[in-house]
Give the backbone structure.
Amino acid sequence: MRILLVVPAGKDYRISDVDQPVPKRPMLRFSILPILTVAAATPARHSIQICDENVQPIDFDADVDVVGVSIMTATANRGREIARRFRRRGKTVVAGGFHATLYTDEVLEDFDAIVAGDAEGVWADLLTDVENGRLKKLYRNRQPIDMSKITPPRRDLLKETGDYYATTNAVQIGRGCIHGCRYCSITAFHNRTYRRRPVDKVIEELRQISRDIIFVDDNIISEPDYAKNLFRAMAPLNKRWVSQASLDIADDPELVELASRSGCRGLFVGIETLNRKNLVSVNKAFNSIQRYRERFSMLYRHGIGVIAGIIVGMDNDGIHVFEDTLKFLDETGIQAIQVNIMTPLPGTPLYEHYKKTGRILDRNFDHYDFRHCVFQPRRMSRRQLQDGADWLYSRFYRLDRILIRTLRTLFEVGPVTAYLTWRLNTTYRYDNKRESIVGSNPARIEKSALGVMNRALNYFRDSFRLAGLSRQSN
């Protein structure tokens, strides 16, 4: 059979025409590993095409038999639209990915079948069922798949579009996360478990690809002893890599040293908030706010930069959270940030809580991209949260701050990380300008408004006092 695998994109990023230029933001794109992994799990008798709407348009007239669509919540509406268009032509359309797994009943309205959870182990069975005319609605592994049997992704399918990505060399050593953060769909998708591949299998894959890579693991140090063994084995390969990790990596000097020696030059770290009550409320109290600076310094000394994940709009965030966060980021020299507005993703405990308490105000999944406020915040208005998040983003990526940040990184961390800092920061700045993200600081606006109100009250009070004195003198 002829199979097309699709990654949908939101309307602000979608390439819908062959003549439409692809936005110059490769630093914010890395290899579309999920569908490349599905392609690798496809029996050789089938032919495979892929389409990432972030860099190329979908050919809705393609001569294919089966269409697989990988959807996240923010692309769920687009994914369902794609399914409807292909089904009108009589094509079999299958959904997979986080949203399809966690929101199965609704997604099935527009798809012929869903692969829930890991595709390996059931994808080949699904294709056989299509050939034999006995397709089921839902395919799910009964047991966790054997991670030692994971096949390296079909990177060859990115030959035509590879230049649009920061790297096509994305590698995954494990799946899942042991933490139970209430807002996280990863935890829900993997049922709070973590599974990893044998070190020798990872090293075998790394030997086949070029120097610069990204590990797409949600927490590459989930099992510290395993991570140490991996980093020791990687050291002779002369790689340079970035990944995601929990900040407690900095509590183990040996682990940091081994990561650095193996080629680590940057880590995305979810610090989320500067408010401990917020961390407790989302089950992330293992982040120690008092030790943020100390931990960052440990990473910097080993040539490892920090891209910080920030969440605004938690229940203990007031209107001062934006300027307080910016001040902290300036002081600590963080190399880059990703600002996320708190978003209740379907399938997570946070979503169920907000739904039960009536706080979800926007059910358009296009807005569940972490850049829109879709719920009622507790200590500010929706408008204040939206404006403040945009203001924080635009101020952090102001050109003077980028220049200072890059120079500071050059001296504190090293030239490779400084170069990555410059490229990533200017890409975020480009994105902000392209989307006209400016925002405003709600704390300053309120202060200005209060000042105007106080001056008005003082004026009227003084006027009444003078009027009273005038009457007395008469």
Observations:
- Residues 450-474 form one domain.
- Residues 469-474 have pLDDT under 50 and may be disordered.
- The CA atoms of residues 274 and 328 lie 9 Å apart.
